[in-house]
Design a protein that fits this description.
single chain, 7 helices
Length: 200
């Protein structure tokens, strides 16, 4: 998601509705599945944190949490909701090195154009400590383009493998498909994945 992207404008203009539709979604099973990969009290980046739902959960469970988002309005709203100073940052601005035990990118980097995903995932990999884990999720499929006022890159398992094939330090550990957790959207499918930074 770059700073010119109309996707940013969408979130800036629809912050309140987006907050209300996402922050109360029951997502504990996925959050716990991720935390099992992270050392106790480890440091997590919620990358594209949206409402701050997950950052708040991780902090309340004893983890050190940094959170960022590309939408200035969502940053303000998520900061108020979580008590964490959410950093206004575009995906391509990530410049950390071996800082995080885990990176959580839930329904966030799916707004990146497919040809730009390898660069973003490389930056995420660099930001992980050795053997660190990242969680990513994408709408399941092969669609690329605008939908409901935002840009989406949908991926299936083959698409994800293609995107990461030239990132030597990043290893795909697990993929699984789930239904959307929001009421009334159970027919929408999601690709979820854990990727790890190699020990080196």
């Amino acid at each position: 998601m770059n700073r010119e992207d109309k996707t940013i404008d969408y979130y800036n203009s629809n912050t309140r509705a987006f907050m209300e539709s996402t922050k109360g979604v029951a997502f504990e099973s996925m959050q716990q599945k991720f935390l099992k990969q992270i050392p106790e009290h480890g440091r997590i980046l919620d990358f594209g944190c949206g409402s701050g739902r997950d950052a708040k959960y991780f902090q309340e469970h004893g983890y050190q949490v940094d959170a960022s988002d590309g939408s200035e309005e969502l940053c303000k709203a998520a900061s108020a909701y979580t008590g964490i100073a959410v950093k206004h940052m575009y995906f391509e601005e990530l410049d950390a090195d071996r800082l995080y035990d885990g990176i959580w990118a839930c329904a966030s980097i799916l707004h990146v154009h497919k040809e730009d995903l390898p660069e973003i995932l490389s930056k995420m990999c660099k930001a992980l400590k050795n053997d660190g884990t990242m969680y990513v999720s994408f709408k399941y499929g092969t669609f690329q383009g605008e939908r409901n006022g935002r840009y989406f890159t949908d991926l299936n398992e083959e698409g994800l493998i293609e995107v990461i094939k030239n990132i030597p330090d990043l290893v795909l550990k697990e993929t699984w498909v789930t239904s959307d957790a929001r009421p009334g959207r159970e027919n929408e499918k999601w690709l979820n994945a854990f990727l790890k930074r190699k020990k080196n």
